[in-house]
Specification:
Elements lengths: L14 E2 L3 H6 L3 E5 L2 E6 L3 H10 L1 E5 L4 E6 L3 H8 L12 E7 L5 E11 L2 E6 L4 H10 L7 E4 L4 E7 L3 H7 L3 E2 L11 E7 L6 E7 L8 E7 L3 H12 L4 E3 L2 H10 L34 H6 L7 E7 L10 E4 L2 E11 L6 E7 L9 E6 L2 E8 L11
Parallel strand pairs: 1-3, 4-15
Antiparallel strand pairs: 2-3, 4-10, 5-8, 5-9, 6-7, 7-8, 10-14, 11-12, 12-13, 13-14, 16-19, 16-21, 17-18, 17-20, 18-19, 20-21
EC number: 2.1.2.10
Pfam family, one: GCV_T_C
Protein name: Aminomethyltransferase
Length: 385
């Protein structure tokens, strides 16, 4: 999310993470995100961002939606319902995918885990939980699969950064025997034993992430989430682990060139415009949105680019992108990059102005800031100094 605003965590209509009391105890400031009161920061945005780039950060992302798809035809169903080919996904692996509408617009971007031959776990954005569940349920005809929304029973904790694995290995109550061999976009089973000899609880341990760093996502029942959070913090503190809020998560994903729904993605945007054409398997016989995707969004449809500028003034979402006196695009996300030290932005621009090296202007509250089109991402861990 961009420019999160601090709000009152006691709002009557708000939803709360199972870790909410932990965040309050740590002095977090909160923001409303898709109806959830989530920590936006604990100390400072910069400190939390740098912790992830140099050591490790601990994130509560329990607002994400977890939706199980169950049945003998689950793989074939997802091939039809989503843009990717999920039936070929091996048990123990994960895949990034998209769920489209009939016009080829993006309802949401997803991570899909294959749990067994006949069960998949679809992880959707918090703001799109209802839309994804509704779309999946509407597409179940003749497939004989069950859709089980497990969001309210599931907590999700992410450990991200170069020391993420060391943090997990240093947590005495946590055990994941196959962690050494866990590949990127794969998952394994771990266990966590709570305080005072409580019985062990099973955890799905995934190696994915949304920061551009190595890291792990831990899925478990809500009843054990607080104990796991405290255990990770205690074990990780000597390794530089810090709790991190959504503000740091946003600048981290922006540096890594990762799209955010409602900014770079939406129902008015086709995958090819967002640089996600590779995610769509058009060789499949059919899937929802196929005809529209094959027809394309049109020659003049704006496409996603990266932009870098000098100085300290950063363009924000909604700011115009100019070529001379012509508006040729709009910023979708922007910030002063904490890692790189200069302004960066993603923007949807007319394809005639999308070539890397093209010079454009960002209209920052009436001031023209020269910017250059660059390939995404802005940052990779391989290029870390």
């Amino acid at each position: 999310m961009s420019d999160p605003t601090v709000s009152d965590p006691s709002a009557a209509s708000a939803r709360f993470s199972p870790l909410h009391e932990q965040h309050v105890a740590l002095g977090a400031s909160f923001t409303d995100f898709a109806g959830w009161q989530m920590p936006v920061r604990y100390t400072s945005d910069l400190a939390e961002h740098h912790a992830v780039r140099t050591a490790a950060g601990l994130f509560d992302i329990s607002h994400m939606a977890e939706i199980a798809v169950i049945g003998e035809a689950a793989g074939a169903f997802l091939d039809e319902a989503l843009a990717g080919r999920l039936s070929e996904l091996a048990v123990g692996r994960a895949k990034y995918s998209l769920i489209l509408d009939e016009r080829g617009g993006i309802i949401d971007d997803l991570i899909v885990y294959r749990i067994t031959d006949h069960e998949f776990l679809v992880v959707a954005n918090a703001s799109n939980r209802d839309a994804v569940v509704a779309a999946l349920e509407a597409r179940t005809a003749e497939h004989g699969v069950a859709i089980d929304d497990r969001t309210d029973a599931t907590a999700l904790i992410a450990v991200q950064g170069p020391a993420a694995r060391a943090v997990l290995e240093a947590t005495p109550q946590f055990l994941a025997p196959e962690l050494d061999d866990l590949k990127y976009y794969a998952w394994t089973t771990g266990t966590f034993t709570g305080p005072e000899g409580e019985s062990s609880v099973e955890i799905l341990v995934a190696r994915t992430g949304y920061t551009g760093e190595d890291g792990f996502e831990l899925y478990l029942g809500v009843a054990h989430a607080a104990a796991l959070w405290r255990a990770l913090l205690a074990a990780g503190e000597p390794l530089g682990l810090q709790p991190c809020g959504l503000a740091a998560r946003d600048t981290l994903r922006l540096e890594a060139g990762m799209p955010l729904y409602g900014h770079e993605l939406g129902t008015s945007i086709q995958p090819v415009q967002a640089g996600l054409g590779r995610v769509v398997v058009t060789s499949k016989e059919s899937f929802v949105g196929k005809a529209a995707v094959e027809a394309g969004p049109g020659e003049d449809a704006r496409v996603l680019v990266g932009l870098t500028a000098e100085g300290r003034r950063a363009a924000r979402a909604g700011y115009p992108v100019m070529s001379g006196e012509e508006v040729v695009g709009e910023v979708t996300s922007g910030a002063l990059s904490p890692t790189l030290g200069h302004p960066i932005a993603m923007a949807l621009v007319h394809p005639a102005h999308a070539e890397p090296g093209t010079t454009l202007d960002l209209d920052v509250r009436g001031s023209r800031i020269p910017a250059t089109v660059v390939p995404l991402p802005f940052y990779t861990k391989e290029a870390r100094p």
